[in-house]
Each structure stands twice: as structure tokens, then as C-alpha cells.
Amino acid sequence: MDNPGLKDLMLIRIILKGLSFDTSPLWHGHQGSMNLEASVNVKEVSRPSDQNVIVHMTYTVREKGAGTEIMSAHLEGHYHYKGDIGLLGKPPYAALLVQPAMQHGNLWLSTLTGWSGPVPLMLMQEKHDLKH
User: Fold this and answer.
1) Residue 61 exposed, middle or buried by CB count within 10 Å (0-12, 13-18, 19+)
2) SS3 sequence, 22-63?
3) Alpha-carbon Rg of the chain, whole angstroms?
4) HSE of 128 in the Cβ direction (CA atoms, 13 Å)?
């Protein structure tokens, strides 16, 4: 696969918004502040055709040390693009670096309280400056 020119790449940043949830049923009796860690994992990338890709990602929040899972979210993104694809950034930002693309995706949030539902996504599409 040819490498697209860096100037042609766009950064599509998926910001996981609305990830607030009631932790009181989970943390009843706990003292002090919660020590949490979050992770984003790419579970599957499929290419139904040359210029389309489907990406399945999971977003998980756990208690450090105990490893207790507090929340998990699943993101399915459908992208139409040219060029290669890669995952950038750290939670709570999952960024897909592709050439200018059209994106359609749904984020479903589920917590240990049993509630699940759609969560709003904010997509920011901007020129990606590869400075470190």
C-alpha cells in the first residue's frame, strides 16, 4: 500500500463524551479517592472494499490495583478513506489518522449498573501536525 503524503492526512479525533455515570452503587463503603485507569483497544479492523474500513474499538475504565471494571464502551466506526489507517493518542481520545474521510459511528456505553445506551460523539477533523 502506498504511503499517502503527510500533508494529505487528516486527524479525525473521536472524543468520548458524556462518560459520566453514578458510581455510588459500585463504591458503597469505599473511602478515599478512586484510582482509575482507562484503555482503548482496537478489537477488529475489517475492509469490505479498498476504500472502506470498519473499526471496532473498546473503551474500558478499571480500578487500578484491584482491576475491577467500572465501565466499558464499544465504538464501531465506518470510514470511507484512501490510504493507510492507524490509531493515535491515549484515552479519553481515540484518534484515527486517515486521509480526508467520511465517518459514521455509534458509541454504546454500558456500566456495571446494567444501563446501556447511545452516547453522543464529537468528531473533530483537522489538519494533523506531526510535531512532537
Assistant:
1) buried
2) CCCCCCCCCCCCCCEEEEEEEEEEEEEECCEEEEEEEEEEEE
3) 17
4) 21
Local structure of 8: helix, strand or coil: helix
41-60: pLDDT as tens digits = 666 666 676 666 666 666 67
Pull the grid cell for residue 112.
Answer: 456495571
**Grid coordinates representing 16?**
468520548
Side chain identity at residue 109, one-letter code:
L
Residue pair 98/126 in contact by the 8 Å Cβ criterion? no
Burial of 100 (0-12, 13-18, 19+ CB in 10 A): middle
Copy the grid coordinates of residue 77: 466506526
Domain ranges, ordered by start, for the chain:
9-25+32-120
Model pTM score: 0.37
- Name which of 73, 79, 89 is nearest 55 in CA terms: 79
Condensed to tens digits (0 to 9), the pLDDT of residues 61-103 reads: 677 777 777 666 666 656 554 444 444 444 444 444 333 334 4
Distance CA 11, CA 129 (A): 9
